[in-house]
């Protein structure tokens, strides 16, 4: 079974590399950044000339692109070479409603499609330990499990088309609110003479322990905001979350606050930094 991977960004590059290492058949790849394609080719992938060539030569086509517009662009481009016998897996984080429309377009060709967004960041992608939420036909999910397992160790089926994305958006929306709580209370502790590492240790003794603080405490302490998952990507996700809530008539005041924080961070030019850099909005050392 030949696999094609389109989109070699911060996450996609690492995910594709794991497929190349673990899969026993050809793996094709393409990205608009030619240097990324060359890098994966050096690791054993086959460089594609464009998205269409990758899709034409592959049985399974995986896409990992930033936004809904990019997913639409890729699938419209490759649509002429899709058909029975091909399976598309969009692992991008896009609006669930748009994913449902893309899936309908793809399935009209006879091809199959699932949405499979991921959680955790670059280190987990490198280790092949991502969490993956899947929406679409359950039989297709079960058939694609071995391929998804190259990239992740926690796979969960969420329901029909778009539901993988709904869960991803709910996950990231919750992370943004947890992050706000960490930033606020860590800043308050710091103002009273308690450093972030001591704060994190103390929190771990009680009910406030959380993965975000455990994984980002050292980066916040060192003021090292090297990007594993960017502010601009999280800004996109919290806005999708708010739009999703509004479409269902669900009030989410905590998420509205998170959106405000991310809008401020974007306005301050922090978009390319790691999402933990929102701490700068509270940081007395800045």
Please tell me about this protein's structure.
The protein has 286 residues and is of the alpha/beta class. The chain has twelve helices and nine strands. Helix 5 (96-107) links the parallel strand 5 (87-90) and strand 6 (112-115). It starts with a strand and ends in a 19-residue tail after the last helix. 44% of the residues are buried. The model has no long low-confidence stretch (mean pLDDT 97).
Compute the CA-based radius of gyration.
20 Å
The oligomeric state is single chain
Strand order within the widest beta sheet: 3-2-1-4-5-6
The mean pLDDT is 97
In whole angstroms, the N-to-C terminal distance is 52 Å
Count of runs of 4 or more consecutive helical residues: 12
Strand content: 5-15%
Order of helices and strands: EHEHEHEHEHEEHEHEHHHHH
Topology of helices and strands:
Elements: E1 3-6, H1 10-22, E2 27-30, H2 34-42, E3 46-47, H3 51-57, E4 60-63, H4 68-78, E5 87-90, H5 96-107, E6 112-115, E7 118-119, H6 122-127, E8 130-135, H7 138-148, E9 152-159, H8 163-191, H9 196-204, H10 211-222, H11 231-248, H12 253-267
Parallel strand pairs: 1-2, 1-4, 2-3, 4-5, 5-6, 8-9
Antiparallel strand pairs: 7-8
Helix pairs in contact: 4-5, 8-11, 8-12, 9-10, 11-12
Offer a quick outline of the entry.
This protein is of the alpha/beta class and 286 residues long.
Keywords:
single chain, alpha/beta, six-stranded parallel beta sheet, 286 residues, globular, 53% helix, three-stranded mixed beta sheet
């Amino acid at each position: 079974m030949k696999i094609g991977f389109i989109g070699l960004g911060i996450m996609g590059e690492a995910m594709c590399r794991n497929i190349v290492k673990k899969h026993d058949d050809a793996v094709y790849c393409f990205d608009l950044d030619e240097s990324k394609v060359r890098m994966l080719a050096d690791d054993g992938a086959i460089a594609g000339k464009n998205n269409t060539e990758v899709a034409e030569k592959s049985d399974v086509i995986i896409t990992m692109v930033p936004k809904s517009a990019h997913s639409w662009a890729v699938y419209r481009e490759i649509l002429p070479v899709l058909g029975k016998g091909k399976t598309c897996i969009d692992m991008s984080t896009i609006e669930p409603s748009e994913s449902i429309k893309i899936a309908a377009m793809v399935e009209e060709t006879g091809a199959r499609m699932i949405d499979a967004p991921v959680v955790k960041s670059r280190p987990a992608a490198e280790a092949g330990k991502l969490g993956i939420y899947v929406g679409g036909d359950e039989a297709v999910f079960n058939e694609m499990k071995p391929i998804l397992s190259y990239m992740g160790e926690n796979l969960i089926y969420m329901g029909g088309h778009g539901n993988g994305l709904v869960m991803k958006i709910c996950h990231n929306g919750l992370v943004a609110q947890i992050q706000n709580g960490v930033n606020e209370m860590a800043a308050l502790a710091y103002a009273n003479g308690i450093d972030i590492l001591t704060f994190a240790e103390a929190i771990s003794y009680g009910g406030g322990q959380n993965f975000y603080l455990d994984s980002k405490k050292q980066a916040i302490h060192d003021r090292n905001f090297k990007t594993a998952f960017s502010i601009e990507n999280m800004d996109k996700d919290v806005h999708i979350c708010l739009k999703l809530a509004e479409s269902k008539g669900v009030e989410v005041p905590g998420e509205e606050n998170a959106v405000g924080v991310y809008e401020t961070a974007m306005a301050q030019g922090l978009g390319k930094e790691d999402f933990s850099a929102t701490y700068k909005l509270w940081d007395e050392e800045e």
